[in-house]
């Protein structure tokens, strides 16, 4: 509970009255009822992160676009399955996106293992300068500073898995640390990240 | 195993498990409330990492997606949770043929990948199969199927896992499927059923060294909850 005070200064800037932040939960509910207009608004809300995440994992923009389209259509198709008891609507969307990206990158990985620069997990994208929306900048900055808050091993274990799609045995080999350590660092790294991040 | 499996919650939340371990952990989640709560919580956190990957979407994507949803039927909310199909765990169905090379024994086996991949047949699964087949303590046993063909079982205590490789001469009659069973202290439990029309599969079984026997039956599709007599093959593991 003591952490709450520490979190306060990281709270996102509230949406301005003329541009109210759409609520992903009610949008997703409307989408589940077949509301295409709501889907359009949900699209605008989540797609920069869906596409960015997939592109980050896959590296290849053309493939990323293809997988992003599959994911967004899947969100439309299965919106009724979203269970608010188990998490937030945006987490539900990004979980689908991440899973698809990882599945794709692993099937691509079959023959030639991709070369990886362990630890070189930059958070930049080529479109940085375009992302000038205050809220977005702030959220990204927050993830970045919270990642910096992790121990080196936690940060590498989390980012090699999440941003590059590696399995934990692959991470163990890349970092040359035992499997059990990798499992633990992934878990306690996420816990530390959770405690640092402001609720979405 | 049970102490071990809780520790997979971090890798699970980051999608850092291969398909086989992911399926095993999701089975565990249905039985383990603490892991389920923690998995939901950590997934929520992991998804926030998407905030750090913001990128401008390609210009044509929006129109393409909006056009695609016009032709996509939506599912309705789940009334009841449907049972997971038993054949979900089948790996690389009809994709891999195991070839004995040289003297029988550790490491003398290779997989000929025919590049007939099913959606589930990922590189991660193939790597797992290879790891088991090349384990220093792997033990291989083979029996012929009464219906024609053979079943080969590789088991490694070091990996605490095994591989069942089924290669029948042909698929069973319409409406019937091959199904495999692990039998421990006389009690069979289903290890998975092939799809209709399938005659070959490679399957990874966690904890296989605990079993005494592996059985193969032919059952009505999509598979049975208990094996029906007669067994098509029985492989003694102990
Ligand atoms: Zn558990």
TrEMBL record, chain A:
GO terms for molecular function: DNA binding; sigma factor activity. Residues 42-109 form the RNA polymerase sigma-70 region domain. Keywords: Sigma factor, Transcription, Transcription regulation. CDD domains: Sigma70_r4. InterPro entries: RNA_pol_sigma-70-like, RNA_pol_sigma-70_dom, RNA_pol_sigma70_r2, RNA_pol_sigma70_r4_t2, RNA_pol_sigma_r2, RNA_pol_sigma_r3/r4-like, WH-like_DNA-bd_sf. It comes from the Bacteria. Residues 1-25 are annotated as: Disordered. Residues 140-193 form the RNA polymerase sigma factor 70 region 4 type domain. GO terms for biological process: DNA-templated transcription initiation. Pfam families: Sigma70_r2, Sigma70_r4_2. SUPFAM superfamilies: Sigma2 domain of RNA polymerase sigma factors, Sigma3 and sigma4 domains of RNA polymerase sigma factors. Belongs to the sigma-70 factor family. ECF subfamily. This is RNA polymerase sigma-70 factor (ECF subfamily). It comes from Actinoplanes lutulentus.
From TrEMBL, chain B:
GO terms for molecular function: sigma factor antagonist activity. The chain crosses the membrane at residues 90-111. Coiled coil: none annotated. One of its GO terms (biological process) is regulation of translation. Its main location: membrane. Signal peptide: none annotated. Residues 91-230 form the Anti-sigma K factor RskA C-terminal domain. Keywords: Cell membrane, Membrane, Transcription, Transcription regulation, Transmembrane, Transmembrane helix. It is a single-pass membrane protein. Residues 4-36 form the Putative zinc-finger domain. One of its GO terms (cellular component) is plasma membrane. It is found in: Cell membrane; Membrane. PANTHER family: ANTI-SIGMA-K FACTOR RSKA. This is Regulator of SigK. It comes from Actinoplanes lutulentus.
